[in-house]
Batch of 4 targets.
Target 1
Amino acid sequence: MSSHTNTHTMTTAQAIVRWLANQFIVIDGEEGSQEVRVFGGGFGIFGHGNVTCLGEALYEHKDTLPLYRGQNEQSMGFAAAGYAKYHLRQRMMFCTASAGPGTSNLLTSSALAHANRLPMLMLCGDTFLTRLPDPVLQQMENFGDPTLGVNDAFKPVTRYWDRICHPAQIIQSLPHALATMLDPAECGPAFIGLPQDVQGWVYDYPEVFFEKTVHRIRRIGPDVQEITDAAQLLKTAKRPMIIAGGGVQYSRAVQELTTFAETHQIPVVETIAGRANMLATHALNIGPIGVTGSNSANAIAEQADVIVSIGTRLQDFTTGSWTAFAPDAQFISLNVGRYDATKHRSVPVVGDAKLSISALTEAIGSYQAPASWTSLAQDERKKWDAYVAQNVAYGNRPNSYAQAIGVVNDKCDPNDRIVAAAGGLPAEVTANWRTLSIGSVDVEFGFSCMGYEISGGWGARIAQSENSPNQETIIFIGDGSYMMLNSDIYSAVLTDKKLIIVVLDNGGFAVINKLQNNTGNESFNNLIKDTPTATAGAFSVDFEAHAKAMGANAMTVANPDELGDAFLAAKASEKTTVIVMQVDPYDGWTNEGHTWWEVGTPHTSANKKINDAHSDWESSRSKQRKGV
């Protein structure tokens, strides 16, 4: 400690970790307010770029900032995203990686966090600021710009980026990074590059820098005139509809959404990120919308005249590449982010969802949607429920994703958390899962990133164990995603964070094979049996043995009946369990509930099937809404 009573002499790394440990947040919950650390800890793999200095500092705070040892830097980032999702972006984790490939492995997870607007702090090694030992091991040299390195690649996929060139710079950089990650509109990953020499340099830091700081998530109220304009439009609606996105949950505005819909009798449809905003049994929940949606939601979407979108960025899977709506439909977009609120000629309401919904419901007074419209939407939902019940049923049919989803849905506890990502499962879970509790579904489809499932589930389970240790985290994953990233089965075993992982093996990348076939193309390089360079047969991986080798319980089942028994056994166990079932790569897909989706197809080909498929695909383009 310095002789000056108002400063502390310490290394840059020591100061960073001490500052992180003194950041707290007030979380408002059902049982009142709770003050906790912003950072639940971190995920780390050490190398020469972060072990000696940052590692030394983290060791001194291992009790207040627990460090989870990752198996792969990319999976650490996915786990941090899963943790932040569970905590509705109010708490987060940091990731530390060494210089070089350790850090570059985080690029994909940073992109995932950016696309999903999730907070994650990356503290990554960098080359020496002095350049005296250049070029160093794992340095990416740029011949024309010596300041440019691999860490600069993170600039497009972060919301905040900095490289610390002097110990004093963290006094400004750390608060700015955290403010960005806690900002509802700007939320996303933050990257701080730490040159290996700078990490160990000392500085006399002011004592006030380390004082306990308590944060709150900012709530920005909507502009009065924007509410007035939105209310004026909504009161003219004969066929109104609400699109509820993930931002509803991040704003903790589920109750306000429900009250708004019930008061004005407006049907609600959900995006993939907003999949658990309402229970499946709620009378005004008309189902998921879009490419991976439901007939019910899409049927009313194409008739709605005024659409209130809340907390959604209106990506193409929600909008059917902007073909899902009537040409003259008008949008009101409630969003904390101006960028999202002003898309496609929307009447914008920029502000916090909780405050904006309450203001809008007050502004429209006694307005209610015509009873005939609401009744029509509910009738459509009943038809969809009947289809789903038939779709998840099993008997003399090939095993399918939908059947597996139905079995787990029937036997899980209401508060269990469901995790899925990429491949065919997001569509199947979104269409077939019946929401049993609010906020219990995490389908990563913002970046549609294969490999998120197990790692994101591990991060969610860490978060879950802090609040609700008796809940389960249940992961649906295909064989393709499993093969991409499975090492956090070992992480879950090491840390005693139990997961239930349902591996549905269809012999390759079956959903992309389906897209390939649907566009007239021959099966090629997706299913293992259609891969010219593969000599082994499909279904040749022993997933059960592989999971057991990482310390998990594992079993292989032949059909949905056996899956049900295995799932109950997994719930009764205290250990991470992997259940494997083969499913048919061709039959059993959910073929209803889809809107058009714009895919780049060949405008000409020597193959007549491809030409015919292109013409058929393009035939729906006339419905595409032209906007910005």
Note: The chain has a mean pLDDT of 95.
Target 2
Amino acid sequence: MKYFFALLIILCNGLSLCFAQTTFNRKEIQPIVKLKSVDFSTIDDVYLPALVSKEVNDVSSKSSKKFLNELKKKIAIEYPKNDTPIVSNRGNVDPPEIDNGFIVFGVQPGIPLDNHLAMHNDTIVTAINSFISINNSSGGFIKNFSLASFASQLGFNDDSRLFDPRLIFDPIEQKYVAVFLFNSSSLDSEIVVCFSETSDANGIWHCYLLTGNPNMDNTWTDYPMVNFTEDDMIITVNLLRDNESWQLGFEESLIWQLDKKAGFNGGDIGTTLWDDINFEGASIRNLCPVESGTSAPLQSSRFLSNRNFDIENDTIFYLHLQGSHDDPNATLTVDYILADVPYGVPPNATQNGDALQTNDARVLEAFIVEDQIQFVGNTRNLTNNQAGIYHGVINGIDGLNELTLTHIIGEDYELGYPGIIYTGDGIDERDAIIAFDHTSFSRNPGVSAMYYDPNLGYSDIISIIEGQAPCEMLPPTVDSIPYERWGDYLGTQRNFNDPDQAWIAGFHTLATGNNHPYIASVRRPMPFSSNEEIEKKIQTKVFPNPVGHRVFVELEIPVNTQKVSITLLDINGKRIDSIMETKPKRYGKNEFSFNVSSLAQGIYQLNISMDDAPPLLKKIVVH
């Protein structure tokens, strides 16, 4: 049955009202029977062979390449890059701290990298275009195997095309799901969905097939994205027509709802398919599922999309699916919100010798906490026309929607393919780590990150890993404009057992010029402290640190400071005691000290405040 809705759209500025016609179609599918169960520990892939095409002659890459190249040529001519600085929006907050990082050895990634990640406890599972790798959190090897070897266990032919892998960990069920695509034509397109039986990634997985051509026409499935609700596994995909360009051949985007508990148990999966998702007669493409920022399960599904091929646009589509896969009264609503700052298709990013493809401006990752959604994607920065990223914040998602969009770019380098991870410790906190790839003429492709606090702003960008050489995987194109593949996405996940920590799978280059994933863990800054501007007012030096007896803190106290307060906090910011509160007798350089012998071993924070200046927090380690 076809549902037609007339939606009253309230624009984010609250000044305009309009009516828009949206449509969708809900289909209940016959339960999907398990194809096979596979024990990952028994997959024997000693040689890990790989044959990587240097022409990228698959249908999806070829079809999108022509249109995007023409569009990016137009952007380069009409919006030439310049060196206008735009980093003045950095705030008073420290950047994230790097915990650990490692290279996944023994595999040869394809083109593009398409790396994704899921983790639990000490296990990191990485999908690398045509490989799956399982490591411990220190990079220790557990298992490597190709998607081809995995697919052979399912009865697929050796010459099958396997691509676009996605991984996700369900913190409620404490289990994994892997999704990848099989072949790229209407005759044999399939979606492979595998549920782990337990929390052991190197154990048994129950595997199912969804048709990649549900309309039984000339379309096939591309670009999956995944998410969970309390009851369902959510998969969104794009349908493309055979042998047509990405723009002209796009048919529609679909939403699959699967009974996740049946999948984890290896039973028949109840399934619902949503298609014909339109806004004012035009199909909405690239539906990005909005993940739960915390480990709390979602009760409904939300999705974001945009005008991803527009040179400049301010529209973000917001979809809300209420009801589980087996609810005949489930509803899907489509709305839109206008951003305060436009986004647009980014130019190709610079590296030494040629350019890196940046794809389009689609929404790449999003999370929700209470009534706020944060999301990220690629964009052309509208000031200097360089490749950057956007960070969006939607407040009041079920009321009067307000959307702020911030463009982020490096000082002298370009950014692409961001991911975003919620790092708050409670529903009242809205901080996040934003990770992305970086590149420039003088800086090889690597991975960077920054921290966002809604009260203090954005931190400086830190480098997680620097590439060893420019990316050199492909020959020049037929039009003699050299390019290399840079994406098409980056993997991230919050560590649900350590909410301050996030794991990232990003793109960097080896000395050979080959692309390669780099896996890293970062955490939000603990303790919070000021940036360089505040440090100039309150200069500090803490020593010795770690400390066993007496700790000394050098302070530069500004002239006319009326009150200095120093408070001891625990690692979570909870007040332990007031150490000192006084009016300084001398300005300039001072030295404060106190005895820590009464404190238990552990990590503490000193909150140092002077008048109304933002407080400075310094970490001390007592041993």
Note: Confidence is low (pLDDT under 50) at residues 1-20, 56-64, 528-538.
Target 3
Amino acid sequence: MATSKIIVLDFGAQYAHLIARRIRQLHVFSEILEPTASLKQLQDANGIILSGGPASVYGRNAPKFNPKIFSLKKPILGLCYGHQLMAQQLKGKVEKGKVREYGLAELQIKNQDKIFQGLSQRETVWMSHGDKVSHLPEGFVIIGSTTDCENAAVADFSRNYFGLQFHPEVTHTPNGLIILKNFVFNVCKCKADWTIGGFLKKKAKEIKKQVGSRKVFLLASGGVDSTVALALLNKALPRKSIYAMHVDTGFMRKNETKEVEAALRKLDFSELHVVHAEKKFFEKLRGVIDPERKREIIGKAFVEIQNRELKKLNLKQEEWLLGQGTIYPDTIETAGTKHAAKIKTHHNRVENIKQLIEEGKVVEPIAELYKDEVRELGKELGLPSKLIGRHPFPGPGLAIRCLCSNGIEEEQQALEQKAREISKKFGFKATVLPVKSVGVQGDSRSYAGTVLLQGNIDWKKAGQCSTVLANSLREINRAVIAVSPEKIDSIKLLRATLTKERIALLREADGIATSIVEKHGLANVIWQFPVVMLPLQVNAQGEAIVLRPIESREAMTASFFEMPSAVLGEIAGKIMQLGGIGAVFFDVTHKPPATIEWE
């Protein structure tokens, strides 16, 4: 058993488990507990981290919390909400900030002792907050500030209490891991003794115990998560105990089902069955516009197909468990933890699935891991690099990359004027598009508008403009820049639903982007590359395609990928040759404030 342990108190949103994952990267065991955890549960921790979360410490719905943790005399690190909570509990003051900060900021470090050891005097950090600590508790001093947040980093060195308004756990704070490392080893005096190999051995035993004499029915999409989950199940259980099924929903990428079937059969795992259910999925989604409704319908359809196949095989449901390749971001974005804000419904977290989970009928062997950990586990299990390195592809597939609309536009004149004023400062012409997408702002779900920028493509200016737009305008969570055509005279919102014709067109556009990126050797640099269709008629021609390549490690945060101009031009040029496409845009929004997928 590990001799060192960091406990993370989960105040919700996307951060508690990301913090725990970062600690595991340091090969130190981490455990996540509710904020109301007893002193007995916390007693053997080397240190405690208070996570970020969507609530306000002075709000009516602020999570309940055990204030006695400050009597333990253990090192404490408060991050974002945790920073504000610690300040409030120790008789400081927290209030609503005049400026919201979402995205990159520059931290000026004033004291490099302990947690900032080894850093420069100026560091790039990732902010996502609306409240701020306005008055420090007794014994605390400022150790770092940003332009808009004086108390961005504070410390009480005598008690080893530290508070950071920013998020060191996300990859967009470049040296954030150094900060956590300093806290874990320099302050908490931990030892490095946790490995993915140790996780594999422990999880294999847990799977055997959970499954027992029953069998597992696994939906294998062919993506990284389901493939690694299948490999882990095959490691822990006899082959005859696993029934793997791939469902072609009709919303797959080009040649997806054929390639998945060939790849999985080569692995010599448990028997693979392929079900073609395109007709069923299109029928159920006919006329559906709302993105959440799409995800719910698709999730339920997977369960119906599973039950249908079990009946065909004359298999008794009580003898089977449903296996899923769920990873932790799927859970927390669906409000799967007590204090998490719902960002979107994942197909493996619809009500039918939740009920099966409560009944103990679901096995999810990698549910506590993040994408890079899943890939590391895949290597440990001996999977080929081509499968492990595949770009993530959502279970609902192209259905949530093909936006739909009732064709009714909202009045946005006042919003557009504000967007134009902001964008002009960066050299862009701005238009507020009559479409909405899902985002994550202040750790909560947003469903807001998109600004189209027109002008010379300058990635730095476009990214800065996108950040300022989302920070300044609550009605905006995303920005795109026009790639083609050079001049856009008219944009009209269309009445559009999920049809085979629209999906086929999107599939071709996606195939073009994928093949060109692979040709230029960028597939391993880009972490994920959604290609999205918008129900907009541009210049009285066809619909708009949005390119959304991103860089990330764990999907909790992401930056848009700065595509080389020659590659971007090649992709846009070939997509524009498709009949029915009137424009190609490029998403220049980070996560947050925008999610990776648009729906």
Note: The chain has 17 helices and 26 strands.
Target 4
Amino acid sequence: MAIADIAPLGVDEHELEEIWSDAPGIPGFFSTVDHKRIGMRYIYTAFFFFFVSGLMALVMRSQLSAPDNHVVSPYTFNQMFTMHGTTMIFLFNTPVLAGFANYLLPIELGTRDMAFPRLNAFSYWIFVLSGIFLYASFVVGKMPDGGWFGYTPYTSKVYNPGINLDFWGLGIVFVGISTTVGAVNFIVTSFKLRAPGMTINRIPIFVWAVLSMAFMILFAVPAVTLATALLELDRLFGTAFFVPHLGGSTLLYQHLFWFWGHPEVYILFVPATGMVSMIITVFSRRPLAGYIWVATALIAIAFISFGVWVHHMFATGMPIQAMSFFSAVSLIIAIPSGVQFFAWIATMWRGKVEFTTPMLFAMGFLLIFLLGGITGVMVAVLPFDWQVTDSYFVVAHFHYVLNGAVVFPIFGAIYFWYPKMVGRKLSERWGHISFWMMFIGFNVAFFPMHILGFLGMPRRVYTYPSGLGWDHLNLISAIGAVIFAVGTGITLVNWVHGRWWGPKAEDNPWDADSLEWSTTSPPPEYNFAAIPVVASRHPLWEQHPLPHAEALVDEEGPKSLSAEGALHHQNTETTGLDARPERALELPHPTYLPFVLALGLAVFFVGLLVKATIVGAFGVGMALVGLTWWAWRTDVDLS
């Protein structure tokens, strides 16, 4: 293999920049397929939904802060409750993690882009258009009001005749397309576009986490897509999949929903733990303890997570033998999570810990995840689950898991990778303040809910009478929510200030170990002028200087390449296990086709919503034109 520490022969960095750059202005905005721009858009869009959903949560906590309160009406409360949960699960947690994965995966793998750049852009446009579709319900005064889970028969046409639930059902089907095609891209990129020498046992733990997440998505998301699609067939066309007196089953809906719903917990949790592993490794100044065990634990969680969904249905009257099996699996899944926990402790124990803002968020995650995990094991025990089902104990548990154990790693990732993404540093002082306000506010807001559950407070209530012992605890919870919200707002201000006025960041300000820190901050459009060659799990700590694969040009021109490197608009394709170079893969140029195809699907869903055949047919036609053009013109610049 020819090795050089310079750009590939025959191509300089100015030429690469010209080849890889997007068109300026609006044309570039709609036609880009650059994974970094798409990843940042995912993050920005997801955080917009995060703060909107957070405002809804503050209104709901205000309503419940005192008995017999009248901040909002019961109808509005139900709408906010539904949209808060839907937004946090479908429009924030999953997409923001996809955004980090989109941005980081190629540069951590030492490649120039995702395996399918146009599919990547299509995934983002579906996500943002599905969010607009869902929130259009607010504009027309028809926000969904059936809960973020959409249980039948309450969501059937008989009991909910308006279009409120159609916004929800069609929106979930729509956003599911984005999640599924994104997962395909992550899998292929992880297996086929790694830097030469990055064997399967050398890839960063975050890549293992994204890979595990992607496989879970492929098997889980089709279930919720099917559940909501069948619900919409019942609502729009009069079928009877969930109508018992016509031969349907309401429990069928719950099985389909939770077959996605509990793996979804780990779809969010697993990439969050990958972020934590990367942060703890860097700020403990030593390799992650038990790398093989942690990677194995991630795969084990992905596999076992598909055997726990019924513990959401222990109160539905299922046979005790079946519930015993799912109870056992729900206990067993704590083992691989514990393996990761002890690996993090061992890494810090043997390292020299630096208490930076990312490290504080990682350590805060450990404490919150510990409590959330303990309560998760508690609800896996049948008698205890029967006691707390549909109580505020369950609200406390899933917020500790889905808010604390996911949002805290995400905020840690913001402070960790912000210098690489933006090229400027965030304020450490304000980062510390943000962390402590979020950590204190979170526990003040959600820990009392465990006690409220034991005191008998049910979930999904709009108000409650005085004298039940719930008054003070709900007030404390509301105060904690405000403190937590202020903490998140500080990071938002820190982000905006740092974006324009923060000090410029070095290429590797944390002295980190993985490949994303070997390129400039922010990375150029092409990521790497020359593809790096990897011989270690920690190339920046153990390979000095970092070698690069040279793309050779012979007398026939640049199309005749050695397999090691890549020229022009190309990636180096490698073998799946040992990352041996196979060929230089030509990548598509910027194009409007992903946007056109996504817009056609959006028009189709609008047609279904308003029951306008012409609108739906126009959307289908628009999508088919885009799809046909996409398949027909594979290697031409269509921008």
Note: Confidence is low (pLDDT under 50) at residues 1-10, 552-563.
